[in-house]
Design goal:
Oligomer: single chain
Structural class: mainly beta
Shape: elongated
Number of helices: 2
Length: about 350
């Protein structure tokens, strides 16, 4: 007995053959292409991309096909893939506990339209780990979906206003290394990061030339000082853009969010945690913007002691700064004073 999917496939093929009989020349129809097992992107696909063709053909971008990875399968991109899917879905299953993983490995590159990471209830994981991923539309990170940017490169090559990452309810973007880039031509080119959880702990994040928007459901966490982050024209001027931004210091500091345009923080919720910081007196620019246009009224600082005694937090539209300054401990100030006085005494004695 044939499965429902096999019957649907046969009907699709039969319809395509009828079309080939009636219309010349024969045209290709888009297919839903799924792998039969783990392995390389270049093998193990069980649906043809051309009407009436045999299996094991690569997904096609020109049709375009949809490549779906399900059933605990792991697909690796280890080489340059010239013919790619129009869209990729990592796990669209419900009801059973399964996963789906797509790895973009060193030496591999993939270009596609939309990538949906976990379309339904089950887990989907996208790992860029040394290779290059180019998306011409967006990455849709839904509930139980995780996009790990570990090393290599991610680029959104679309133009105009667009979503770079889109949220289907609870998705996570982890940027640990490599480069994560999107380019706008003008401030009117909106670049949206809309998934619920964004963690940046390393690598280079560069959304430049456009206007960066976050959703009110988004929590952006900057962990430590290893990352280089540039978000031009970051605009949080409405309640719908009231994201939470966490600056979590490590032992030596935290990365700055730089900006070559304007910075609106009207509805931003800033959370600054210094509990892991072990360094001395220092000044940290949380944002480095050409034009700090508006300030946050919702700022909470923890882990640094008493404001005005152990640290100061300053934001100013006049000076274009949003910064935290760690104040030297009184004991340190005493040592500096004693050392300075000793130096003064020695100098005076020498002069005499």
């Amino acid at each position: 007995m044939k499965s429902i999917s096999e019957i649907g496939s046969n009907r699709k093929t039969a319809g395509a053959l009828l079309l080939c009989t009636m219309v010349l020349p024969c045209i290709s129809l888009a297919a839903t292409v799924t792998p039969t097992g783990n392995g390389s992107w270049d093998q193990n696909w069980n649906n043809a991309t051309v009407a009436g063709g045999s299996g094991n053909l690569l997904p096609s971008a020109s049709v375009p096909d949809t490549a779906i990875i399900n059933n605990n399968r792991i697909i690796n991109v280890d080489s340059v893939v010239d013919i790619v899917a129009g869209s990729v879905i990592l796990n669209n299953q419900n009801g059973s506990t399964t996963t789906a993983t797509l790895n973009i490995n060193s030496g591999g590159s993939l270009t596609t339209g939309v990538i949906t990471v976990s379309a339904n209830d089950n887990e989907g994981t996208l790992n860029v780990q040394g290779g290059a991923l180019t998306v011409t539309d967006q990455v849709d990170i839904r509930a139980n979906g995780t996009f790990n940017m570990i090393s290599g490169s991610f680029s959104n090559s679309a133009t105009g206003p667009r979503s770079i990452t889109k949220d289907g309810g609870g998705g996570t973007l982890n940027i640990q290394g490599g480069t994560f880039t999107a380019l706008g031509a003008a401030a009117s080119d909106v670049l949206r990061l809309e998934n619920d959880t964004i963690n940046i702990s390393g690598g280079t994040v560069s959304l430049t030339g456009g206007q960066v928007l976050l959703a009110d459901t988004t929590t952006l966490t900057i962990a430590g000082d290893a990352a280089t982050i540039k978000l031009d024209n970051l605009n949080m001027n409405t309640a719908g853009r009231a994201a939470t931004i966490n600056f979590n210091f490590d032992e030596t500091g935290v990365s700055t969010i730089s900006n070559d345009g304007f910075l609106n923080l009207d509805f931003a919720k800033l959370r600054i945690d210094g509990s892991a910081y072990t360094g001395g007196a220092a000044t940290f620019d949380l944002f480095d913007a050409v034009n700090v246009a508006s300030l946050s009224s919702d700022v909470i600082v923890t882990g640094f002691g008493v404001e005005g005694v152990d640290y100061t937090f300053t934001q100013s539209t006049t000076e274009n700064i949003v910064q935290l300054k760690v104040i030297p401990e009184p004991a340190t100030l005493g040592l500096i004073g004693a050392f300075g006085g000793g130096m003064l005494f020695i100098r005076r004695r020498f002069l005499i």
